[in-house]
């Protein structure tokens, strides 16, 4: 039987994961080292290894938490709701994730760009199953004439692309827009117009 963690152990684990998120999102998995993570966490390397046996174990813990965060907005789509409102709610939730969790988004993007070696089973399993379920909901709304007929998977992909871009390419977006612009506020209005017109029956 595993003993419950003490408050100090829980705090140190959270500190390590926060430091690892900073290091991994900046340097990618290959460029990150345990020494870097320990330094950012303010812990010795042996102390860090007491909580996580390897860099891979830290990365896996981050990705597991991240996948849940990433899937929750899609899970929140209500099949009994008003279709356009549900889809736009999903767009807004994804845009808020990009605004509030840019490091997590870049961590996920880096993993995908490397071929998803550590998260592919979850993508092929949990993520795929949820997307298939939501694609059926979208198709049902299309069959009822409540939204325009579009390839449902590609509709979901387009929402990912048009929201996560603002996290993964934040420096580029802000450099092009210049000072005095809030990219997320402007993006929300643009995306609402875009998807409302696209999905109109």
From TrEMBL:
DNA-binding region coordinates: 33-52
Family annotation (SUPFAM superfamilies): Homeodomain-like, Tetracyclin repressor-like, C-terminal domain
A Gene Ontology biological process term: negative regulation of DNA-templated transcription
Keyword Transmembrane helix tagged: no
PROSITE patterns: HTH_TETR_2 (PS50977)
InterPro entries: Homeodomain-like_sf, HTH-type_TetR-like_transc_reg, HTH_TetR, Tet_transcr_reg_TetR-rel_C_sf, Tscrpt_reg_YcdC_C
Official protein name in the record: TetR family transcriptional regulator C-terminal domain-containing protein
Record-annotated membrane-spanning stretches: none
Residue ranges annotated for the HTH tetR-type domain, each copy included: 10-70
Keywords: DNA-binding
Any one GO molecular-function label of the UniProt entry: transcription cis-regulatory region binding
């Amino acid at each position: 039987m595993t003993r419950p963690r003490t408050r100090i152990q829980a705090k140190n684990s959270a500190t390590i994961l926060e430091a690892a998120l900073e290091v991994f999102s900046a340097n990618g998995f290959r460029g990150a080292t345990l020494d870097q993570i320990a330094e950012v966490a303010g812990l010795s390397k042996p102390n860090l290894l007491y909580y996580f046996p390897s860099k891979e174990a830290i990365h896996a813990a981050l990705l597991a938490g991240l996948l849940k965060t990433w899937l929750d907005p899609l899970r929140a789509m209500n099949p009994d709701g008003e279709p356009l409102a549900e889809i736009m709610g999903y767009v807004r939730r994804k845009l808020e994730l990009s605004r509030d969790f840019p490091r997590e988004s870049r961590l996920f993007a880096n993993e995908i760009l490397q071929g998803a070696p550590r998260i592919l089973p979850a993508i092929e399993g949990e993520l795929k199953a949820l997307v298939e379920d939501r694609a059926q909901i979208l198709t049902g709304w299309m069959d009822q004439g409540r939204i325009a007929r579009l390839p449902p998977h590609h509709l979901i992909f387009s929402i990912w692309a048009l929201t996560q871009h603002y996290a993964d390419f934040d420096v580029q977006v802000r450099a092009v827009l210049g000072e005095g612009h809030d990219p997320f506020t402007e993006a929300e209005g643009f995306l609402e117009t875009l998807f409302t017109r696209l999905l109109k029956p």
